[in-house]
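USER: I would love a firmer grasp of how sequence relates to backbone shape in proteins. This is the protein in question:
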Amino acid sequence: MCDSFSAKSQAFIDWFVSQPGAILDPRVSLTDFRAKGAGRALTALEDVPKEVDLFTIPPESILCANTSDLFKCLPSDVTERLEDDQWTSLVLILLYEYLQGQASRWKSYLDVLPDSLNTLMFWAESELDELQASNVRDKVAKGEAEEEFRRSVLPVIHEYAHVFYPQTARRLQDDELLSLCHRMASTIMAYAFDMPRKDDDDEEVDESGYVEDDEDAVTPKGMMPLADMLNSDAEFNARLFEHDGSYSMKSLRDIKKGEEVLNDYGPLPRSELMRCYGYITPKYAPFDVAEIPKDLLVHVTQKYRKLEQSDLQERLSYLDRKEVLEDGYSLARQGRYSDSDDDEGSALNMDAKVEQLPDGLVKTLRALLVNKNEVRNLKSARKDRDMELWKDMGNVFIQILDERIAQYATTEEEDDQLLRSGEPQGRQKMAITVRLSEKQILREAKDVAISIAQGNFPHSPDALPEGPSPKRRKISV
């Protein structure tokens, strides 16, 4: 007799393969990974060769605005408004389907989604405190999320309660709805996929498979059953491909019997992996980052340069108009070897270190350090002045890094000893691992800054760009 967990897994598989157009290769199956702290996972029952479609999800089986009955039951003015807010839209869809209970055609799928998550949104304050000065803590905006739920989600449910609740169902109190909202929103963060926009076919894909992303464009989101149950690591063996509205998970290399099928989440730092998905792995370490807040950079540089407030504001306004100024600057390593085959998910550079400062940070420092008459004409600065500027940038960045490192309550050595002791477990261990990596990155960046201050110049980027660097995203076709 199987337990409830296994019964739900089997009911989901039965539901999935019953969907018209859905395909599941018999050589893979859902496996109970609770003993490894990972819930469910897809594993190979026998050897699977490279370039096999492990499963295919037809468009009708993707839970989104086009497939849920909710949008058919709401007035057109409401649905049109929700089309521009994909998060609120999908939260409402998941709430609607959940409240339908047995009447929802997605019931078997919803049953295998987690009741609780390990993402930062659900950590206690004492657990978040273990992150110390990590910037990822600032991204846990539970209060702001709750305000947004009260403004955008609850009014829709209250006004159209006859749509959301079956006739005999109990109406939930606001605190119950808010709890469900947090659960659904976190599920979306961890499980939902971005889907191609209607205009994606017109976008130009470069030789690396990326397109320039329009920040103002609305990217549709959807829940993809089975695809969202795959775990990920930086060395992955499968990737999701879209073709004519259907999505297929394809093996990128040979997968041995008993091996887990791992999807590609992209080169995420472990802080983001922890925030969005609630776990970390050692293989994501090469993609870790440490943040330098803009306010800290400006404060230290103003003090170093002895800038008057009016002069400082003029420089900052200029940088802002040029779209160079950011809220923070990420110090990162080269996570993969430059000649690696990204599609294989291999060739991780586990020994990677910070080798240079990000261009945006360099350009900001430069604009704050030059003489006032050079601010608007940086590209014509004399070469000897350019060398002086690099040394100034190295010296001021050493001070910035010293102040940033001091914001953490423990040292790199103390964190390392804690982890070696084996005492920290679970969330505390994750938090210490993330904050330790950030301190290591800051130390590596300080080595770069010291080298620059001594006259070793890594590169000489253009003083200012003509406009913002476009964001890019991977398109698999």
Remarks:
- The longest strand covers residues 238-243.
